[in-house]
Amino acid sequence: MNVAGPATSPFLRRIAAIALSLCTSILTGCMVGPNYHQPKAPVPETWLDMKAPAKAQTDENLKWWTTFNDPALNSLVDRAFAQNLTLREAGLRVIQARALRGIAVGDFFPQDQAATGSVSNTHTSRNAPLGRGGRSFNEYSVGLEAAWELDFWGRFRRGIESADASLDASVADYDSFLILLASDVSTEYVLIRSLQEQLAFTRINVKSQQDTLELTKIRNRVGAVSELDVTTAQATLSNTQAFIPALEDELRQNTMALCVLLGRTPSNLESELGGPGTVPAAPAEIALGIPADLLRRRPDVRRAERNAAALSAQIGVATADLFPAVSIKGMTGFHTSNLKTPGFHPSAANLLDADSFEGFVGLDVNWPILNYGRIENNIRVADARFQEAATVYQNTVLQAATDVETGLSSFLRNRERAAFLSESVIAAQRTVDLALIQYRQGAVDFLRVNQAQVDLVDRQNSLVIARANVAQGAIATYRALGGGWEPFTNKEFVPQQTIDEMRSRTDWGDTLSPDYDRGTDLLFKRPRRDAPTDPSMHRQSNPPAEFEPSRTPETHNEN
Predict the structure, then answer these.
(1) Which of 130, 136, 402, 550 falls between 20 and 30 A from 54, CA-CA?
(2) Domain 9-35+65-126+135-282+291-525, what fold?
(3) Rounded CA gap, 387 and 32, in Å?
(4) Predicted confidence (pLDDT) per residue in 254-275, tens digit
(5) How confident is the model over 166-188, as pLDDT tens digits?
């Protein structure tokens, strides 16, 4: 048996040369549809509550929860990052986006390829036109078939461009959830601490009011006061005691919410919380920086911008349908039969002989001319979707600036309120002490004592709530500034245990590799996921550029 090498190589070389030439021309050719330009989104030059410009230490925003100097809070945030299931869902969506990008890259290359082979037996009728010769024969064939729609108009390259932007958007969505998770854990922690502190104050007041009730009973027994003082003291005590189960129930609910954030079953979290504590003190100042610099790092802004870029590329994908689709189709292989004809006696043994070689290559043009407006309207739909995404991006930037202003206002106003309430609580405690002294001496009636004790309970709880609101205002401001995702730029999106489980089911190649973004899919580089050297810059491959010019960073300082 002779294998047909020399006879087939010129044909194959011609196909390879044509494919290489076309591939080169396609990669350097035109792409229909608009080239993406980031929508303009104006931002304010400075913050409304900015008082004293100073150098901003923006590094503190990378792990802003550590500025509260609370080890328990730091530990809870770390646990949430490691265990939260919703964060894991966001990470898996990034993995899906990687795989979808691989599909988009694959569409650029020959879309249909198949290795074929067949064996058949044919028996013809004696009465058929061919029935006078050999009526029973076998046929054998092996070959390769391919069809490649050439990307003259950039349909597939626009698809890859869109997939790149969608992958960036999924990464930004993951980053956004990192910030949201840190802020939610911090908020729940502050609420838990505030409830614990309110419970502590309430129990102290219950003990004090029990002592006061005993005092009224003693004075009533000796005839110094009427029963009215006793019943009034009892009513005040019972009302204060009623706060305890309500606070305990609210504490349990917030603890359960924190358990969900930590990705664990319901528990008391006593070991993680370290027992009853106080509301963590918010930092004295928050490094704000200039809006144009710091809003750029917000993941939701990046996600909205990348979504707009992805939909812009889809306009080009839709526009390509206006032009003819040119495809190369080809087949090469070997075919033989043992049909007996004069002078011809082949068999399966000579399937790979040079004489059994066959093949063809050709061009196929498909140009939908009468589409009744379908293509044009599909382009219009794509353009409208892009414009919608651009508007969403602009609104996201606007909302981002508003979020910072709202959080900062809450931080500053509640700090002022807490300062006043602190003085009020000191005065209220002194009022209670003086009223009890004068009541024992008969200088004042019990209503004065009772009112002072009621006021003390209210003001102590108001102080704790105000201090919690200061911390929550700081948390809201940090979240609005968009920091907290940067330390994770060199880490994978899902835990190693999940990666191992997925690899045990499916061949993932390097899609689950930590170095995925440093690889290449055939001719196309993947979007990089580099850690920014400037904390105000994000890690996407095409950063936004239509913000206001950068200025010297500033810090909000109350001093």
Answers:
(1) 402
(2) Outer membrane efflux proteins (OEP) (1.20.1600)
(3) 18
(4) 999 999 999 988 887 888 887 7
(5) 999 999 999 999 999 999 999 99
